[in-house]
Amino acid sequence: MNKKLHRGRAKRAWPKLVAAAKRGEPLSYKELSTSIGEHWRAASWFLGVIQRYCARMGLPRLQALAVNQETRVPGKGYAGRRGRRAHACEVERVRAHRWPKKAPF
Question: Is the residue at 87 inside a domain?
Answer without folding.
Answer: yes
